[in-house]
Amino acid sequence: MNVLGELQRWYESNCDDDWEHQYGIKIDTLDNPGWSLFVDLAGTSLADREFAEIEEMHSEREWIACKVEGRQFVGHGGPQMLERLISEFLRWADAAQPNP
Predict the structure, then answer these.
(1) What is the pLDDT of residue 96?
(2) Separation CA 46–CA 35 (nearest Å)
(3) Does some domain include residue 100?
(4) pLDDT tens-digit map of 60-98
(5) In a domain, 37, yes or no
(6) CA gap 80, 47 in Å, rounded
(7) Which of 1, 2, 19, 31 sits at 20 to 30 Å (Cα–Cα) from 11?
(8) Is the pTM higher than 0.90?
(9) Residue 13, domain extent
(10) H or E stretch covering 94
(11) Is residue 85 a part of any domain in this protein?
(12) What is the spatial distance between Cα 31 and Cα 43, in angstroms, rounded to a whole number?
């Protein structure tokens, strides 16, 4: 799976000439070092979906924490964990989609 391409598709599928003006996706860096991923869920099919928190600490630089907080997916991880953060979001989002 090309996670960046999949994230772009998820974003585009929620753009309806309204949602993207108020909500979106933010990727940022942390100073410890690491990454943050924030995905707004309000106005999407995921807004009220349950998410089982993820918290893994393998080492000082290999760690990940993901949760849904106030209609926002929030993920943080070590400097090599950005792809995993995005993958965890997409895995959850894909599981919410009905099978064709």
Answers:
(1) 78
(2) 22
(3) no
(4) 999 999 999 999 999 999 999 999 999 999 999 999 776
(5) yes
(6) 28
(7) 31
(8) yes
(9) 3-95
(10) helix 82-95
(11) yes
(12) 31
Residues in the chain: 100
Give the CA distances from residue 38 to residues 1, 24, 58, 68, in Å, rounded to whole numbers and listed in that order: 20, 8, 22, 10
Q: Is 46 domain-assigned?
A: yes
Of 39, 48, 49, the C-alpha closest to 19 is 39
CA distance 27 to 99: 29
- 100 pLDDT exceeds 70? no
d(CA 18, CA 70): 20
Q: How far, in Å, are 11, 33, 82, 85 from residue 64 at the CA level?
A: 22, 12, 9, 7
pLDDT at 1 over 80: no
Q: Give me 90's structure tokens.
A: 């997409």
- Angstrom distance (rounded) from CA 83 to CA 77: 10
Q: How many domains does the chain have?
A: 1
Residue 43 CB neighbour total at 10 angstroms: 15
